[in-house]
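User: Some background: our group keeps a shared notebook of sequences we're curious about, and every so often someone picks one and asks for a predicted structure to add to the entry. Today it's my turn. The entry only has the sequence so far, pasted here. Could you supply the structure so I can complete it?
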Amino acid sequence: MPPKSKLTPEQMDEIRARLAADPDLTNAGLAKEYGVDASLISRLRHGKYAPAGDTPAPAAATSDPALRRIPLLQIQPSLLNPRRTFDDEGIRDLAASIAAQGLLQNLVVRPDEEKPDLFRIVAGERRWRALELMASEARLPIEIRDNGVPVRIIQADAAQHLALALLENLQRVDVNPMEEAAAFAQLQQLDPAKWTTRTIAEAIGKPKGQRFVQQRLALVERLAPEIQQALRDGKITFTHARHLTMADFKQQRDLLKKGVGAWSAERLREAITGDLVPVSRAVFEEAAYTGQIVENPETGTRYFADKKQFMELQRAAAKAKAAELKKVWAWAEFEESYSFSHYRYDQVDDGTAGAVVHFSNYSGIVEIHKGLAKRENRHEDPAEVERRRAEQEQQEARQKACERLRADLQPLIASDPAMAMRLYFYELGATHRHKSPARGLSGDGLLKNLVNGGALSKLAGHVGPVAQWSGRHNFKEDSDPATIWAILLQMPEEAMATAIAETIAAGFNVAYWSEGGISPLVVALARHYQVAIPEILLPAQRDIEDAAIAASAAAE
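Assistant: Of course. Here's the predicted structure to add to the notebook entry:
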């Protein structure tokens, strides 16, 4: 029989997978096995072969010399196959398709190493399960019942079998990201030198997809087992999982308990990176840091995960910088506080000028200020200098306390639409005397996190950013008002309540007022949610706090 002039798409997929798993396979050997000319295999190996026209699937073509028919009882699944979960309904649908159209694609098997009369499935376990279901219900197609299942028999060891099975599994459209990740990791375990991110990307048909492979491998390397299972079960999305790779296992588990699967991507990212420090902030050599560095999978921003170690290294580097500046300035000092005290210095341009290296003990940011003269050196009253210094320190402490209290209350308000609406109405009627902490609806535009995967995600195609820095979106000029309104009308009430709560919470603020401390409303909210208020934020007049507590009790 003369060689065939072309390969079917299924044969091409099989050969590509086999070449990826074992590049040492020869063109001549494959050509003989598939009954084609060796030049076709060569062109396929180098990505230059594309047959014209439609070709029927080889499974139905019993005349194909490369196929054999084996009784269904002699075919068994393999423990090496990576796929562990099978949808019963999907198997039943596939059985119905086979009953109507026949088996359109053959199975790929290899001889069992211990039982010569058995064959282990390398590719096609779903088809086998569908046939098993049909056999159990006495409706196996007559051709398969009488003649056997069309299969291609290959000779492969366990490693080659696993590689082929993994690659075949990865061709599925519905493959779970966690299954992909586990498959990539298994390939690398088989042969790390052979299966690099580049060769894996090429083998699965993504020659430029190294980043794709790296992102999935990170799921295996950086996710706690519970998080991996949540991704398999669909409780979190791939986007959630990618962001969670930035957190340690304890934080991942804590976030999972909080129902992170319902969060927007932006809210999750902020929850994780809030205590992380960008690598770009360091003034020391990165090699000096020995802790973990994590990367934002969307932006590529890298963070120091160990803030304590970062602060120690940053402080030491700032002190060293101050010592260096003493060589070129009349004086140079290292200063550590929440923020730099500009009022303590004048800007001068003479031989007395010096420099200050300021290290923020809150953010770790290092600032270098040059050309300075200390005001106390210009005969300023020492008592006044000390008074201002103490005042500055207290102001910084209050600012930090306000930020902590805001961070504690904001997510609670965002998850409590009823409370958020109360805040909104308070804002509508507030005057300066009422010191409203609610200003969430005063900004222009929709919150970015609401339309990018959040409660208003169905509007994503109709909005654009107000400004690069704003974090808000407006409707596009060419968007259709009727279409937008129709989308809003179709949104469930729960989604709208979430959007309102998150919008108001985004504008929630805690500020210290010199004439009476923080807003009584903030005090009442903290009491309602049982959030501790830092002592430094409470005013001397306890009647304000007592009034807030009384108002909260009356409302209840």
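Suggested note for the entry: The radius of gyration is 33 Å. The chain has five domains: 1-55, 57-169, 175-273, 307-380, 398-555.
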